Amino acid sequence: MMVLPAPAAYRVPKLGSSVHEYEDAIAWSRRHARFAVADGASASAFARLWAQLLVRGYVAGQLGATCLETDLSPLQQQWSCRVEQRELPWYALEQARRGAFAALAGLTVGLDGTWTALAVGDTCLFQVRDAALQTALPLSEPEAFDSRPLLLGSRPAANLALRAQGAIVCAEGTWRPGDAFLLMSDALAATFLRGGASLDLLDFDRTAMGFKQWVHRLRTDRLLRNDDVSLLWLNMPPIDAPA
Predict the structure, then answer these.
(1) pLDDT tens across 56-94, in order?
(2) Whole-angstrom Cα distance, residue 140 to residue 165?
(3) pTM (whole model) above 0.85
(4) Helix (H, G, I), strand (E, B), or coil: what is residue 7?
(5) Where are the alpha helices (DSSP H) in 99-200?
């Protein structure tokens, strides 16, 4: 039976922030062949926690496209319970009342050569084959990124209109050995698309330090907006790879 390789995961907080202030989240399960990246909205309350709950929920198989609003309920309860346990100043209480927001992109790989995906907001999934972009969702043009994406909220009322507005995007497809799946938070996704969605753009040493230095160069050259940067990179093996 084929065993998926572990993906490569890279993270860099926004310039001027520490790793403890990083508000994206990355998770995967090789057992369930699920992979996810979420991007917490900095302007919302406890966005880091909400992003973490979303990716963990996705890789555990708790979030599906058809019933997403209902599926979110246990995660929203967890977020609420953990926030309410804290002693907060009045202004933080008001922020918490409005809730946290985050973008999410999740990929589930079938061992039969198929895949499904779910995305909300501006965290993106790309499938690249033989140096050509096969899939880009939920956004496929760099001009599509703006400062007010529709995001998943930790309060149920925040998600009531997402489906009607077309913000819950699902897709399915097939993969071949050698394909690459890339899940990226929005700043990097926009840069990737502006660069022609070429793997050649990702020319960094495949280490945490190499990624950090590469991100610094892009920021210095004003090719990458200053934001938390996350990349989950999965290279697909031969279907008949041994266990």
Answers:
(1) 999 999 999 999 999 999 999 999 988 887 776 656 666
(2) 18
(3) yes
(4) coil
(5) 186-194
